[in-house]
Design a protein that fits this description.
heterodimer, A: 114 residues, seven-stranded mixed β-sheet, four-stranded antiparallel β-sheet, 11 strands, B: 110 residues, mainly beta
Amino acid sequence: DTAVSQTPKYLVTQMGNDKSIKCEQNLGHDTMYWYKQDSKKFLKIMFSYNNKELIINETVPNRFSPKSPDKAHLNLHINSLELGDSAVYFCASSPTGPQVQPQHFGDGTRLSIL
Amino acid sequence: GNSVTQMEGPVTLSEEAFLTINCTYTATGYPSLFWYVQYPGEGLQLLLKATKADDKGSNKGFEATYRKETTSFHLEKGSVQVSDSAVYFCALSADYKLSFGAGTTVTVRA
Protein backbone atom coordinates (compact mmCIF):
# COMPACT_ATOMS: atom_id res chain seq x y z
CA ASP A 1 0.00 0.00 0.00
CA THR A 2 2.65 2.45 -1.16
CA ALA A 3 1.57 6.04 -0.54
CA VAL A 4 3.49 7.82 -3.31
CA SER A 5 4.77 5.58 -6.06
CA GLN A 6 6.97 6.51 -8.99
CA THR A 7 7.86 4.53 -12.08
CA PRO A 8 10.36 3.65 -13.27
CA LYS A 9 12.82 3.46 -10.39
CA TYR A 10 15.78 3.59 -12.75
CA LEU A 11 15.95 5.12 -16.22
CA VAL A 12 19.04 4.95 -18.39
CA THR A 13 18.84 6.54 -21.81
CA GLN A 14 20.74 8.39 -24.50
CA MET A 15 21.11 12.12 -24.94
CA GLY A 16 18.41 13.57 -27.16
CA ASN A 17 15.74 11.01 -26.26
CA ASP A 18 12.31 11.81 -24.78
CA LYS A 19 11.22 10.05 -21.60
CA SER A 20 8.43 10.14 -19.03
CA ILE A 21 8.26 9.46 -15.31
CA LYS A 22 4.94 8.61 -13.70
CA CYS A 23 3.78 9.37 -10.18
CA GLU A 24 0.67 8.29 -8.33
CA GLN A 25 -0.44 8.92 -4.78
CA ASN A 26 -3.18 7.08 -2.90
CA LEU A 27 -3.31 9.43 0.07
CA GLY A 28 -6.15 11.58 -1.21
CA HIS A 29 -3.92 14.65 -1.25
CA ASP A 30 -4.74 17.70 -3.35
CA THR A 31 -1.22 18.89 -4.08
CA MET A 32 1.63 17.12 -5.86
CA TYR A 33 5.21 18.13 -6.57
CA TRP A 34 8.27 17.25 -8.59
CA TYR A 35 11.76 17.77 -7.16
CA LYS A 36 15.21 17.29 -8.66
CA GLN A 37 18.08 16.03 -6.49
CA ASP A 38 21.55 16.47 -7.94
CA SER A 39 24.66 14.42 -7.27
CA LYS A 40 25.48 16.52 -4.20
CA LYS A 41 22.06 15.71 -2.70
CA PHE A 42 20.79 19.25 -3.22
CA LEU A 43 17.01 19.26 -3.61
CA LYS A 44 15.14 21.80 -5.68
CA ILE A 45 11.45 22.05 -6.43
CA MET A 46 10.50 22.01 -10.09
CA PHE A 47 6.70 22.03 -10.21
CA SER A 48 3.66 21.91 -8.00
CA TYR A 49 0.06 21.14 -8.90
CA ASN A 50 -3.02 21.67 -6.78
CA ASN A 51 -6.17 19.86 -7.95
CA LYS A 52 -4.69 19.44 -11.41
CA GLU A 53 -3.72 23.11 -11.74
CA LEU A 54 -0.14 24.31 -11.95
CA ILE A 55 0.71 26.56 -9.00
CA ILE A 56 4.50 26.50 -8.94
CA ASN A 57 6.77 26.47 -11.94
CA GLU A 58 10.32 27.21 -10.94
CA THR A 59 12.95 28.13 -13.47
CA VAL A 60 12.92 24.86 -15.34
CA PRO A 61 13.71 24.44 -19.06
CA ASN A 62 10.56 24.06 -21.12
CA ARG A 63 11.85 20.63 -22.19
CA PHE A 64 10.25 19.53 -18.91
CA SER A 65 6.48 19.33 -19.06
CA PRO A 66 4.38 18.12 -16.15
CA LYS A 67 0.92 16.70 -16.72
CA SER A 68 -1.74 16.02 -14.12
CA PRO A 69 -4.64 13.97 -15.53
CA ASP A 70 -6.28 13.91 -12.09
CA LYS A 71 -5.31 14.95 -8.61
CA ALA A 72 -3.84 11.52 -7.81
CA HIS A 73 -1.37 11.59 -10.69
CA LEU A 74 1.42 13.91 -11.74
CA ASN A 75 3.61 12.78 -14.59
CA LEU A 76 6.81 14.38 -15.85
CA HIS A 77 7.77 14.32 -19.50
CA ILE A 78 11.23 15.36 -20.58
CA ASN A 79 12.11 16.14 -24.19
CA SER A 80 15.56 16.13 -25.77
CA LEU A 81 17.36 14.84 -22.71
CA GLU A 82 20.72 16.41 -21.88
CA LEU A 83 23.64 15.21 -19.78
CA GLY A 84 22.77 17.76 -17.10
CA ASP A 85 19.38 16.13 -16.60
CA SER A 86 21.04 13.20 -14.87
CA ALA A 87 19.70 13.29 -11.33
CA VAL A 88 17.20 11.67 -9.00
CA TYR A 89 13.68 12.99 -9.49
CA PHE A 90 11.28 12.82 -6.55
CA CYS A 91 7.54 13.10 -6.60
CA ALA A 92 5.75 14.25 -3.45
CA SER A 93 2.23 15.05 -2.29
CA SER A 94 0.56 16.88 0.55
CA PRO A 95 -2.92 17.84 1.66
CA THR A 96 -3.96 21.47 1.55
CA GLY A 97 -5.60 23.26 4.40
CA PRO A 98 -5.39 26.24 6.69
CA GLN A 99 -2.07 25.02 8.07
CA VAL A 100 0.97 23.86 6.21
CA GLN A 101 1.10 20.09 5.97
CA PRO A 102 4.21 17.94 5.52
CA GLN A 103 4.91 16.37 2.18
CA HIS A 104 5.11 12.65 1.48
CA PHE A 105 7.82 11.58 -0.95
CA GLY A 106 8.16 8.75 -3.39
CA ASP A 107 11.35 6.67 -3.54
CA GLY A 108 12.69 8.57 -6.52
CA THR A 109 13.55 7.88 -10.15
CA ARG A 110 17.25 7.77 -10.91
CA LEU A 111 17.76 9.16 -14.40
CA SER A 112 21.11 8.57 -16.08
CA ILE A 113 21.90 10.10 -19.45
CA LEU A 114 24.59 8.42 -21.52
CA GLY B 1 13.36 35.21 -0.40
CA ASN B 2 13.10 32.12 1.76
CA SER B 3 16.21 30.07 2.39
CA VAL B 4 17.66 27.47 4.72
CA THR B 5 21.29 27.08 5.75
CA GLN B 6 22.43 23.93 7.47
CA MET B 7 25.82 22.80 8.60
CA GLU B 8 27.90 21.07 6.01
CA GLY B 9 28.88 17.49 6.42
CA PRO B 10 29.80 14.86 6.28
CA VAL B 11 29.50 14.11 9.97
CA THR B 12 30.95 10.87 11.32
CA LEU B 13 30.14 9.71 14.84
CA SER B 14 30.51 6.67 17.03
CA GLU B 15 27.45 4.87 18.33
CA GLU B 16 25.91 6.50 21.42
CA ALA B 17 27.51 9.86 20.63
CA PHE B 18 25.55 13.12 20.74
CA LEU B 19 24.45 14.54 17.40
CA THR B 20 23.71 18.17 16.57
CA ILE B 21 22.99 19.50 13.11
CA ASN B 22 22.64 23.26 12.94
CA CYS B 23 19.95 24.86 10.81
CA THR B 24 19.11 28.53 10.38
CA TYR B 25 16.54 30.07 8.11
CA THR B 26 15.57 33.30 6.41
CA ALA B 27 11.91 33.86 5.70
CA THR B 28 9.25 36.51 5.56
CA GLY B 29 6.35 35.82 7.88
CA TYR B 30 6.14 32.72 10.02
CA PRO B 31 7.08 29.58 8.14
CA SER B 32 6.65 26.02 9.31
CA LEU B 33 9.91 24.17 9.84
CA PHE B 34 10.73 20.53 9.17
CA TRP B 35 13.48 18.00 9.37
CA TYR B 36 13.43 15.27 6.76
CA VAL B 37 15.65 12.18 6.66
CA GLN B 38 16.77 10.28 3.57
CA TYR B 39 18.09 6.76 4.05
CA PRO B 40 20.30 5.32 1.29
CA GLY B 41 18.34 4.57 -1.87
CA GLU B 42 15.09 5.91 -0.48
CA GLY B 43 12.96 9.03 -0.67
CA LEU B 44 12.67 11.64 2.03
CA GLN B 45 10.69 10.91 5.17
CA LEU B 46 9.39 13.48 7.56
CA LEU B 47 11.31 13.22 10.82
CA LEU B 48 9.72 16.05 12.81
CA LYS B 49 8.10 19.43 12.41
CA ALA B 50 7.26 22.65 14.23
CA THR B 51 4.69 25.16 13.09
CA LYS B 52 5.22 28.12 15.43
CA ALA B 53 7.81 29.74 17.63
CA ASP B 54 8.92 27.73 20.68
CA ASP B 55 7.30 24.54 19.35
CA LYS B 56 9.45 21.48 19.90
CA GLY B 57 9.23 18.69 17.35
CA SER B 58 10.36 15.22 18.41
CA ASN B 59 10.47 11.74 16.92
CA LYS B 60 12.66 8.63 17.26
CA GLY B 61 14.81 10.34 19.89
CA PHE B 62 15.43 13.39 17.71
CA GLU B 63 14.37 16.86 18.81
CA ALA B 64 14.36 20.36 17.36
CA THR B 65 12.96 23.61 18.76
CA TYR B 66 11.66 26.48 16.60
CA ARG B 67 13.62 29.52 17.80
CA LYS B 68 12.27 32.70 16.26
CA GLU B 69 14.76 34.97 18.02
CA THR B 70 17.73 33.16 16.50
CA THR B 71 15.87 31.94 13.36
CA SER B 72 17.10 28.45 14.08
CA PHE B 73 15.81 24.88 14.16
CA HIS B 74 18.78 22.76 15.23
CA LEU B 75 18.39 18.97 15.24
CA GLU B 76 19.68 16.97 18.21
CA LYS B 77 19.82 13.37 19.34
CA GLY B 78 21.37 12.29 22.57
CA SER B 79 22.61 8.82 21.59
CA VAL B 80 22.87 7.88 17.94
CA GLN B 81 22.72 4.38 16.48
CA VAL B 82 24.18 2.91 13.32
CA SER B 83 20.66 2.92 11.89
CA ASP B 84 20.63 6.74 12.11
CA SER B 85 23.14 6.93 9.25
CA ALA B 86 21.38 9.00 6.60
CA VAL B 87 21.18 12.41 4.98
CA TYR B 88 19.26 14.96 7.05
CA PHE B 89 17.51 17.95 5.48
CA CYS B 90 16.21 21.03 7.21
CA ALA B 91 13.32 22.68 5.36
CA LEU B 92 10.89 25.53 5.67
CA SER B 93 7.47 25.78 4.15
CA ALA B 94 6.17 29.03 2.76
CA ASP B 95 4.43 30.16 -0.43
CA TYR B 96 3.10 26.64 -1.05
CA LYS B 97 6.55 25.08 -1.32
CA LEU B 98 9.37 23.59 0.68
CA SER B 99 12.80 25.19 0.61
CA PHE B 100 15.47 22.71 1.61
CA GLY B 101 18.90 23.10 3.11
CA ALA B 102 21.79 21.42 1.35
CA GLY B 103 21.55 18.27 3.44
CA THR B 104 23.97 16.85 6.01
CA THR B 105 25.30 13.33 5.59
CA VAL B 106 25.63 11.55 8.91
CA THR B 107 27.52 8.28 9.31
CA VAL B 108 27.40 6.43 12.62
CA ARG B 109 30.06 3.80 13.21
CA ALA B 110 29.66 0.83 15.53
